[in-house]
Every structure is written in C-alpha cells, then in structure tokens.
Design a protein that fits this description.
Layout (H helix, E strand, L loop, with lengths): L11 E3 L7 E5 L3 E6 L2 E8 L2 E7 L8 E5 L3 E3 L1 H9 L3 E5 L5 E5 L7 H9 L5 H23 L4 H12 L7 H17 L40 H23 L19 H6 L4 H14 L7 E3 L5 E3 L1 H8 L2 H21 L17 H6 L32 H17 L8 H20 L11 H12 L4 H8 L3 H8 L9 H8 L4
Helix pairs in contact: 3-4, 3-5, 3-8, 3-10, 4-5, 6-8, 6-10, 12-13, 14-17, 15-16
C-alpha cells in the first residue's frame, strides 16, 4: 500500500508588523512582491512558512530587513516601499551590510561640492575632531559607569585631551586606535552568563566576552564569541540607518570627511558619522549581558570557529534599529550643517533643513532640543533552562519548583527541618507545582470588572475574618495554615477572589 501523502500546510498569515516597525525576513525562498496594491511577503524554512499581506494604509512598516540571499524582490515591491517611505535592508549574519535602499533627499550640488572639499579645506578635520571627541567621551563613560575601570578611563580621557592639538587625520586616527585598544582590553575577561542547561553545550571561550580582534580576520569581522557577534550585527544595523539618514539629507555616502579613507565599495561618510553612537550600542549590550543570560540556541559555530547568529536572535536585534536611527540622526545633521555653513557666509543663504530630527520645527514651537532616546530592554530568560519568563522573576515556574525542592532536601539532610521525610518533601513539591501552574494559567481578563483590589480589601477581607479557616481551605484548595493567614488579613492571589467572594455572598 502506498504511503499517505503529507497534507500541504498553507503559510501562517499575518496582517500586522511589530510595534517598532521593523519586519525581519529569513530562511529560503523569500518573496517580496505586490498583489492588487498590497505588499505580499513570504519567508520561512521548510514547511514553517510565514505570510504577510500589508495594505498601503495603516501597515506601520518602516524597515524591511532581509537576512540571507535566497529569494526574490520585485521592482514593484521596491517602488511600493519607496512610495511608503519604508527602507529595504539586506544584511549578512556576520554584520555585513549588503544593500540599503530608502528615501533619498534632493541632491544639492552646492552641498556635495562642499562635501568633496571638506578634506582639503580644514572643515573635515574639525568635524573629525568633534566626532572622535564624542566617541571617546562615550567610551570613558562606559569605563567609569559600567566597567568601573577608573585608570583606563583616565587613559582614554588623556587621549581625548590630545585631540585639540592633532594637526592631521593620521594623528586623530592614532589617538582613536590607542583609545580603542585600551577600551576593549577591559572587555576581554568579562563573564557571560548562560542558563545551567546550556553550560555543557558551549565552548569554553564563550563564557567570557573575549578579544575584539578576531583570530580569523585580525579585526572585528568574523567574531569568535557571541558578544562580539551581537555587536557586529548591531553595528551593521547602525551602518544601515546611517546610510539612510545621510541619503535623506542628500549627501554623497562615498565622500568621507577624512576619518575613513575613501576606497572603492565603501561608504566612508557613513562610517565616519556613526562613530559617536558606537559607545551607546556597546553600553546597551554590556547592560544586557550583565543582567540576562544568553541562550545557546541563538548561536552556532562554523567549522572555522566563526560564531554566527541564528535567525531568532537576528529578528530580535533588528527591532533595535529605530533606536539607533534616533541616536545617529543628530550627528548626520551636524555633519551636513557644518559642511553647509562653510559654503557661504552671506546673510541671505538659506538654512539647511532638519528632516531627521525636526529640530527647526521644535525650536519654533519652543520645545526642548531633542527628546531622550531610551534603549530597548532585553528579553528576560530563565537562568535554569533558558525559557522566556515574564515579570521580575529570574526563573520559570518549573525551575522555581526544582530550586525549592533542592533547598528542602538540603535542609532535611542537614537536620534543620524536622519531620521532612522524602515522602513529605515530594508531597509538598507536588502541591507547590500545582499552585505555580495555576498562577501561570490564570487569565486576568476573565476576572469580573467589579472585583478590584479595593473591593476585596474593603468588603471581602472583613467578611473572611468571620469565617473559619477550615471552610476557606476547602473552598480554594489551600492548607489551613494559609487559610488562617487569609483570615488575619493576608491578601491571596487574585485567582482566588471570585471563589472567596461567592463564599461570603458578595457580588452575587
């Protein structure tokens, strides 16, 4: 008898993009096309396919990020993105920007001519001093506030003080390189936390941040540790956002201001402008590593030792692009306005617009200069198994039960808890697991609207004080000791409120 054929599974349909406006595509057979005015997007791996159909109005799409190179993007789709002021970004997992397209500002010949002369007339040197001064200031802040390395921070501050006397671009590059060497030297031995379940699955050198210089490339490329792999990918997002910002201002990306030498196939201006934002990306990553563990399933190691990012973590990191866009926008406008100010000293010369920050409009309306940009919060992971957890808990429900059980067993063996036999510990563990699972499964949306905390404290709690602990324990399935605490004024979990309200005849 012939084997039964598998039923074809249609792609999972989605009609909305994440709140940050960044839609990340990965996998094989990626398709981006237009059908009857809608942008149709399909991605995924194998039978697990995802399908998006976005209308022209109310889609919320700002960036379409594609990771990989297997698929097709139609010309109509690129026109659709252009008409909607949405950008298309093609990235590699190792932090290389392959392609960036987005809204382009009007080309002003006067601005571009001045940009080409900036390196020779001294304007580029002043811009580079300002950019590197801000970068070193950010590195000093990271060393003092996050790493608590005061001596190294003083060293970086010394290099920063020498910027004023730097007479050429080589001197500025040397000061920046020496500061970076001292700065990243303090990163090497920083520990990286992993869930206990992953400790046996990771290489030894993944347990620390490691050197910024990869042994595979002699530079930051081809990272061999997860932290630097994440940093390279975030810098790729920052570079893409910088390109889009400069294009919106009508500047030539290939003509740098002198910090990076103009070479073929490199957008030197974008690499110059993003330098002051690098320490803020690094500060965000250090905060993440210090607070939350990484997960082994988000990384893999190639045959050469290169640490690569999996699609899941790439999608999460792509969601940080709007933050880096806001941080780099003032610097892009600073460079454009500084170059423009040197083109003409006449009183009748017009001001260059501020389409990225809307600074002119904010000043006209009397608003603050620029609002504070908040960096995204990392996902909370269980320190035992690596699962996603909600709230402020450091472990999932199952790991909490396991930890509590181990503590009881250790206490019983040490003789600190009398009467705790293995049978009693097993019974207590089962009860604790039941209550933890009930709390996790409870849906606050099903709670009656009238049953608020104030109603419970003012009406239900006094009535429970006149009820026996035995009756309360039987009603909600808890111990008599816990029921006695409720009679004394302890507020139980909200999942018990409905049963207790019915018990005392309130709200019926």
């Amino acid at each position: 008898m012939a084997a039964a054929k598998n039923v074809y599974q249609l792609p999972q349909s989605h009609n909305s993009v994440p709140r940050h406006g960044v839609l990340t595509l990965f996998g094989y057979g990626i398709q981006v096309r237009v059908d009857r005015g809608h942008l149709v997007v399909e991605d995924g791996i194998g039978a697990e396919r995802y399908y998006y159909r976005l209308p022209r109005v109310g889609h919320g799409l700002k960036r379409l990020v594609v990771i990989g190179s297997d698929g097709l993007v139609s010309l109509a789709a690129l026109r659709w993105l252009r008409d909607q002021d949405a950008a298309f970004v093609l990235l590699e997992r190792n932090g290389k920007v392959l392609c960036v397209t987005g809204p382009v500002g009007s080309s002003d010949a006067k601005l571009r001519r001045a940009q080409g002369l900036a390196v020779s007339n001294g304007m580029g040197l002043e811009i580079c001093r300002r950019l590197i001064d801000a970068k070193l200031q950010g590195q000093e802040h990271v060393l003092r506030e996050r790493l608590n390395c005061q001596l190294t921070a003083d060293t970086v501050a010394g290099f920063r003080n020498k910027l004023g006397s730097a007479e050429n671009f080589d001197a500025i590059r040397n000061l920046e390189a020496n500061a970076a060497s001292a700065y990243f030297r303090e990163w090497r031995d920083l520990p990286v936390t992993w869930p206990k379940a992953d400790l046996q699955k990771i290489p030894v050198h993944w347990r620390s941040v490691g050197s910024r210089q990869s042994p595979l490339s002699g530079g930051p490329r081809l990272a061999v540790t997860p932290v630097h792999a994440i940093l390279n990918y975030c810098f790729a997002l920052l570079e893409a956002e910088t390109r889009l910002a400069l294009s919106a201002l009508g500047m030539d990306l290939g003509l740098g201001v002198g910090l990076h030498t103009d070479t073929a196939n490199r957008d030197s201006l974008a690499l110059d402008v993003l330098e002051p934002v690098r320490p803020q990306v690094e500060m965000w990553l250090l905060d993440w590593v210090a607070r939350e563990p990484l997960r082994r399933a988000d990384f893999f190691e190639t045959a050469t030792g290169n640490c690569r990012l999996m699609s899941q973590i790439c999608t999460k990191l792509s969601g940080t692009a709007p933050v880096w866009r806001k941080l780099v926008a003032p610097w892009a406008e600073f460079v454009a306005h500084t170059i423009w100010a040197g083109t003409s000293k006449s009183k009748g010369s017009r001001l260059l617009s501020t389409p990225l920050t809307q600074q002119h409009r904010r000043v006209a309306k009397g608003r603050p200069a620029l609002p504070e940009v908040k960096t995204p919060k990392p996902e909370r992971l269980c320190r035992g198994c690596g699962k996603t957890v909600q709230g402020k808990s450091m472990n999932c429900a199952e790991c909490d039960v396991e930890i509590a059980t181990k503590r009881l067993v250790e206490a019983a063996r040490a003789g600190r808890v009398a009467g705790h036999t293995p049978e009693a510990i097993a019974k207590q563990t089962a009860t604790h697991r039941k209550h933890v699972q009930a709390q996790a499964a409870w849906n606050p949306a099903k709670q009656p609207a009238w049953l608020t905390e104030q109603v419970f404290l003012e009406k239900i709690q006094p009535a429970l004080a006149r009820t026996s602990a035995t009756a309360i324990a039987k009603r909600i399935g808890v111990s008599r000791w816990y029921a006695g605490r409720i009679r004394e004024g302890y507020r139980p979990h909200p999942r018990h409120w409905v049963a207790l309200a019915k018990m005392v005849g309130i709200g019926m």
